[in-house]
Amino acid sequence: MPARKDPDASASVPSFYGAELRFKREAAGLTLEQLAEGSFRGISFLSQIERGERRMPLDFARHVDQKLGTDGFFERRCEDVAKARQVGHPWYYADIPDMEKQAQTLEEWAPTILPGLLQTRAYFHARIEHGAPETPVEVAEELVQARLARAELWSRAERPSYWVILNESVIRRTPLPPAVMAEQVEYILDIMRSTRSVLQVVPETIPWPPLAHAMAKIMTFADAPPLVYTEGDFAGQIVDYPAHVREYRRRYDLLRAVALPPKASLALLREAVRSLKDEARQQD
């Protein structure tokens, strides 16, 4: 059984909130199972709140206050915690950055864009300009800063093992200037090299790959069940129902099978950089 990992209460407002919840629960002599009993929530969900990874729903905060006799503390503060973790992120994504940090393994696939953890400032800013041109400048900058903050994951000593599958079309077919895209692809290559992560590319010759219309972020944890995050244009969902998680796992494995091997995938990206730089020089 893995050693218990205490939450770092200084890391963020959600981490402080979760650490306080664990302290009060243990002071009351309750296990995770005993505190969750009667709440219609699972012990893994409660554990993730204690680690600062999941948002505390209002009804669950009331349940916790009643069981622990905490005079409404967790109900009063759960909205503050939700706001703190949402800065720069849509509400449905607010839990994910902390989950990424806590994960043991992280596997990603996004069929139409590059995954957020791999995006440069220029790439993400251009996506806002093309996809949501009405976004106020200050809001766009807040979104960009929140996106770049997630990349701090790569400098963490205890970062997750990372495996990403890219669609070749997101490299080849983009409205970005060739010089900007060349910088973006070089950035991905640098991350793969410095973190010893694994990258595969699904070639454009595969017209209907598994998960062709759904992005997937699969996360496993040392002391909690695996989760999947999937997203559309205006909503996202954390999938934790075991049967559904297994199906995403199976589809992701099928995606690996149709992708190029890692060595060939890196060669494709290096060739793309050369081609993009040649195109940029021709435009000068």
UniProtKB/TrEMBL annotation:
InterPro entries: Cro/C1-type_HTH, DUF5753, Lambda_DNA-bd_dom_sf
Domain HTH cro/C1-type, first and last residues per copy: 21-55
Classification via PROSITE patterns: HTH_CROC1
Highest taxon in the source lineage: Bacteria
One Pfam family recorded for the sequence: DUF5753
Name by which UniProt lists this protein: Helix-turn-helix transcriptional regulator
